[in-house]
Amino acid sequence: MRSVRARAALGATAVVALALGAAGLAVLLVLRANLTDQAGLQAEVAAREVAGQLALGVPYAELDAGDEEEHPVQVTDEDGRVVAVSKDLESISGTGTDRVAASGTAGTGDDDHDGHDDRDGDDDPGRGEVSTDEPDFGNGTATVDGDRADYRFAAVEATDPAGRTLTVHAGAPLAAERRAVDSVRSAMLAGLPVVLLVVAGVTWLVTRRALRPVEGIRREMAAITASEDLARRVPEPGSRDEVARLARTTNETLAALEESVGRQRRFVADASHELRSPIASLRTQLEVGAAHPGLLDVPGAVADTVRLQALAADLLLLARLDAGERAGLTRLDLGALVREEVSQRVGDRVPVTVSVSDGGLDVTGSRARLARVLGNLLDNAQRHAVRAVSVTVARDAGEVLVAVTDDGAGVPDAERERVFERFVRLDEARARDDGGAGLGLAIARDVATHHGGTLTVSGARFELRLPHPGALPPNPRSSIAGGAYR
Questions:
Q1: Sign of the four-CA dihedral 434, 439, 442, 445
Q2: CB 325 within 8 A of CB 362
Q3: Do 339 and 290 fall into the same domain?
Q4: 444 and 336 in a common domain
Q5: How many domains does the chain have?
Q6: Quick one: 8 and 33 in the same domain?
Q7: Is residue 210 part of a domain?
Q8: Which of 54, 74, 429, 465 could form a disulfide with 169 if both were Cys (CB 3.0 to 4.6 A apart)?
């Protein structure tokens, strides 16, 4: 079943059906128990009336059991023998004995057990008593004047004036209880389908209305996919529910996707532009050299090839960083790495001073990529320094700080973030640039981000902060195409 509405309607209907079934069963059980208790109370009343007569010494043949069809009565002595039964009682069950005839003449006591033959004399035989204990109850059947029915029997003990213990079994019909239970059950079974249809219909309509904005989002997303127009947005309902949050999140995702695609397109365009110049220059030199070997500018061709190779390497590194590639990580001393990198820069036009604090400068990362970051920062400082470049390495709280500072004009405050975008070169730097493509600071920031650190600039001071050293940071995927020489 693919429809959410259908599944919701089916699920709600199933839950309601189970709930109504359980509730109906409970109602029927309670109703049956109450009606059975009422029948038992009626049987107890009838049994006590007969027991009271026995306690007063009323002869068995003269016992009044009321409506004998409604309340069949059976009286037994302490030996379990039947001493009296109600008129027209033909059979009985559920009272301990199924006999319906007295031990002597039916309806009267015999000479040995009735104890009533002498009660017409002048002597007062006294009176017995009726037990006040809770009677015993049980269900059974009885046939009265040819009609067989189910009864609730109550057993009450009584003592006659002669001191004999008798047990009176009186019944109350259960037909009313059965009819009531059957009527309620039939009404429930008849009404249940109607209730379930109403529940299913209401759930279907409510779910349909609730999911209508979702369908609008789906249609708009399908249209965006077909048109590839990432500037479009899905409709946002005015409510504050989950659907509205879904729409807002979808639009935020579309905005981020549009920005990412635009950034990638700009990156491709800028990369193509940057590659075009050295390739065109190299081709021109080679074509001239092919036509006029004496005019071939070999140093120029080599320089263009080196520039092209460096640009291709930068683009490849950025692509790997964007893909979230993590290079081999190891624990290293950042102070020692800075000293090593500075010592190898023998061709710098401005001297570099290094200040490294003692101890606690370990970080976890890729030695080659961190060396690349330091090299890019030093290259940038060399381009803009007047007379001095300095590098300091120190602990700062839980981080290792590397600060590269030059005595140049610095980056304007308005350009502090823009300078880290790819292929961005500030106007002042563009005039003095010797062919850089504007990827150095972009690479430096992305590498810092992938190491769980940060790279910021304030004036002519660039600060690289890396965690010390602890657990490795999560593998971030660079989401900002940032960085270039200033």
A1: negative
A2: no
A3: no
A4: yes
A5: 3
A6: yes
A7: no
A8: 74
Q: Helix (H, G, I), strand (E, B), or coil: what is residue 140?
A: strand
Residue 179 CB neighbour total at 10 angstroms: 11
Which residue segment(s) compose the domain that 362 sits in? 327-467
The pLDDT-based confidence of 477 (bands split at 50, 70, 90) is: very low
For residues 341 and 443, membership in a common domain is answered with yes
Residue pLDDT, tens place only, 93-144: 988 888 888 664 334 333 333 444 444 444 455 678 888 888 889 999 998 8
Q: How far apart are CA 176 and CA 173, in angstroms?
A: 7
Tell me the percentage of the chain whose pLDDT exceeds 70: 88
CA distances, 181 to each of 88, 124, 173 (Å): 29, 51, 14
Q: How many CB atoms lie within 10 A of CB 332?
A: 18
Rg (CA), the chain: 52
Q: Write out the DSSP string of 32-97.
A: HHHHHHHHHHHHHHHHHHHHHHHHTT--GGG---SSTTTS-EEEEETTS-EEEE-TTEEEEESSS-
Q: Which of 64, 66, 83, 62 is nearest to 74 (CA)?
A: 83
Using the 8-state DSSP alphabet, how is residue 413 labeled?
A: G
Question: Within 13 Å, how many C-alpha atoms sit on residue 128's CB side?
Answer: 24
Report if residue 59 sits inside a domain.
yes
Q: DSSP labels for 235-300?
A: ---SS-SHHHHHHHHHHHHHHHHHHHHHHHHHHHHHHHHHHHHHHHHHHHHHHHHHH-GGG--HHH
395-415: pLDDT as tens digits = 988 899 999 999 998 899 888
Averaged over 88-97, what is the pLDDT?
Answer: 86
Residue 486 lies in a domain: no
Mean pLDDT in residue range 452-476: 80
* Contact (Cβ atoms closer than 8 angstroms) between residue 426 and residue 486: yes
Look at residue 323 and tell me whether its pLDDT is greater than 80: no
| Cβ proximity of 340 and 301 under 8 Å | no
Comparing 84-88, 365-369, 435-439, which segment has the lowest mean pLDDT? 435-439
Q: Are residues 285 and 333 in the same domain?
A: no
Task: Give, in degrees to the nearest 5, the angle at Cα 121 between 120 and 122.
Answer: 130
Using the predicted structure, report yes or no on whether residue 425 has a pLDDT greater than 80: no
* 206 located within any domain: no
What letter represents residue 260's amino acid?
Answer: S
The amino acid at residue 423 is F
pLDDT mean across residues, the chain:
83
Asked if residue 341 and residue 311 are part of one domain, the reply reads: no
Same domain, 314 and 331: no
Read off the pLDDT of each residue in 356-377 and give the average, rounded to a whole number.
Answer: 91
User: Between residues 9 and 392, which one has the greater pLDDT?
Assistant: 392
Q: What are phi and psi of 329, to 5 degrees?
A: -105, 145
Task: Give the pLDDT band of residue 445 (cuts 50, 70, 90).
Answer: very high
Q: Are residues 384 and 410 in the same domain?
A: yes
Q: Check: pTM over 0.90? Answer yes or no.
A: no
The answer to whether the CB of 72 falls within 8 A of the CB of 186 is: no
